[in-house]
C-alpha cells in the first residue's frame, strides 16, 4: 500500500514537472513573438494601435504598445530596456539624444513625416503676419532648429547652417519676437501669441487643423520619424517584421485615410 502510494505521488510529481515545462515553453514562444513599442499618443500611438489590432496578428506578431506624453522619456525607456523600440522621433533628435546621454540607439528605417507647421488663431495668411509678430517656438534643440529652418525656407528669417537656438538667427527683417516654449504647451501659446510652430504630435490632440497653418513642411523634409531600437536589436526578426508592417501598402493606406494628408507616410 505504501509502495503504491509512493508511485502515485511520483507520477503526480512528474506530471506536474511536464506541465510546468510546457507552460514555460509556451510563455517563451509567446514572448519571442512579442515586441513592446513606445510612442506618443498621436499620431504614432494611433498607428501602433492599428498595427496591433489589424496587421501584426496576420504576421504572427504581438505588439505591446506603451504610451508616453512627452519627448523626454521614450528614449530613456528604450535605453533602459523597458521597451524594445520607439516611434516618435527623427534621426536628428535621435543623434542629439545619443550624444547627450552617451547611448547608442539606432534607426532601422523611416516610417512617416509629421509635418511641423506655423499655426495662428487670428492670422489667415503668411502675408498678413505683421512686423514684430510674437511667435512661439519649441524649446528643445532639435525641434527649435527645425522650426527656424521652416521660417527660413519662406524667407522670414536667415539662420546659420544647422541652427539649434534663437542665437543662430542671423537676420530677422520683420523683427519677430520669439519665445521658447515646451512642446506640449505650444498649442496653448496661440491664445496670447500671434503664431506658434507646433509639431504634429501636439497639434492634432489640440485640434489644430490645416486651415490654421501659415507654413507647413512638405514631403521633401528630412525630418521623417523613424523606428528606433537599441543597437543590438536592429536585426531582431521582430523589429524587421514590425518595420515591414509599418511601411507596407496597407499601413500607408491607413495613414492617408486616417490623417487625411496631415501625416505623410515614408515612400
Automatic annotation (TrEMBL):
SUPFAM superfamilies (UniProt xref): Periplasmic binding protein-like II
Family: Belongs to the nlpA lipoprotein family.
Signal peptide per UniProt: 1-24
Subcellular location: Membrane
Transmembrane segments: none
Phylogenetic placement of the source organism: Bacteria, Bacillati, Actinomycetota, Actinomycetes, Micrococcales
Annotated InterPro entries: Lipoprotein_NlpA
Protein name: Lipoprotein
Alphabetical UniProt keywords: Lipoprotein, Membrane, Palmitate, Signal
